[in-house]
Amino acid sequence: MAVITVDGVKNRKDFKAFLTFPWKVYRDYPNWVPPLLLEMKEKLNKKKNPFFEHADMELFLARKDGEVSGRIAAIIDYHHNERHQEKVVFFGLYESYNDLEIARALLEKVADWGRKRGLEILRGPMNLSMNDECAFLLEGFEEPPVIMMPYNPPYYNELMEKAGLVKAKDLFAFKMTRDHETREKVRQVIEKVKSVTSFSLRTIDMKKIYEEVKIVADIYNRAWANNWGFVPWTENEMKFMAKRLKSFADPQLVIFARHRGKEVGFAFGLPNYNEILKDLNGRLFPFGLFKLLKNRKKIKGMRAVVFGVVPEVQHTGLAYLLYDQLEKNALARGYEWAETSWQLEDNEAINRFTTSIGGKIYKKYRIYEKKIV
């Protein structure tokens, strides 16, 4: 009978095994895009990542007969639990072979870790929060993931269900191409909005990146305040994000809207770097950074990560103006398609909006949970 153990990551050797284990899982999955190891190390560094100013985490490795066969992170986000009045322990960074015993052992380890801290619900995956990558891919395995979106073997969903977890929420990803059939209808809406409003639009000023990011944080936190699972970004988290994006953002894909002297909305798009990250195999050095910079002009897709409109102007049609400018800028830069992601399945207003501008659901993701008391 096989011996299964699940132990915390305690040293450099364990941490390296934790980081590199996915390469074993995905060796037969051509659509998987390896994460940048340098970025992953920084993300998991409690001294560098400001997420850990309001969160805690422990990493675990599962071994079967001494061989690493799975990994998982146990996470407490104190801001989430305080804001939503829940006692949740999140699991994240889950990877394993198609082995139910391993899956159960990993999930139970996180559940037990949470119980010891007075928590009552196991939920995930969160990598590390809903402001980061989250959920398991449920539908749409035939295409690779876009930047900062998850990918996983189909069997993960089956393992979760057999381990007793149930659906907490589904997320949608929409895709649109440059020739979507709603173009004329959208144009008419935009002309009407322009005739009755006085918004002005501009692109981000990268020379003032930190000031601009503070504006994004303020609008984002106000616009998304009532969404399921939402936790506001702290100023330090936004600065951390700005640092990461400074080298990779396309300024033409970050657009602000101004009204009566105040910034009231933004659209934030990212080039789909996954199209070229795949060839780097997780390593920027010694030649990966050169390849990245050399090939960035070959990127044909973009991810519309988020639209934010403050509550006072949410029903004015501003979202259409932001989308229109983002699309124009993207087409002028040579992008040919876009993914809008992710969106909550029951956020009917934003889903209707995305459908109205030509988006079609092409991927679905699922967050799981179960009670652990």
SSE layout and pairing:
Blueprint: E1 4-8, H1 12-20, H2 22-25, H3 37-43, E2 55-64, E3 67-77, H4 78-84, E4 88-96, H5 100-115, E5 121-124, E6 126-127, E7 133-134, E8 136-139, H6 155-162, E9 166-177, H7 183-196, E10 200-203, H8 209-223, H9 235-245, E11 254-259, E12 262-271, H10 274-277, H11 288-295, E13 301-309, H12 318-332, E14 337-344, H13 348-356, E15 360-371
Parallel strand pairs: 4-5, 13-14
Antiparallel strand pairs: 1-2, 2-3, 3-4, 5-15, 6-7, 8-15, 9-14, 9-15, 10-11, 11-12, 12-13
Helix pairs in contact: 7-12, 8-9
Going by helix content, strand content and strand pairing, the class is: alpha+beta
Which architecture name of the largest domain does CATH use? 3-Layer(aba) Sandwich
Q: Residue-averaged pLDDT, rounded?
A: 93
User: What string, H for helix and E for strand, traces the elements in order?
Assistant: EHHHEEHEHEEEEHEHEHHEEHHEHEHE
Instruction: Write down the domain tally.
Output: 2
Low-confidence stretches: none
Q: Rough shape?
A: globular
Percentage of β-strand residues: 25-35%
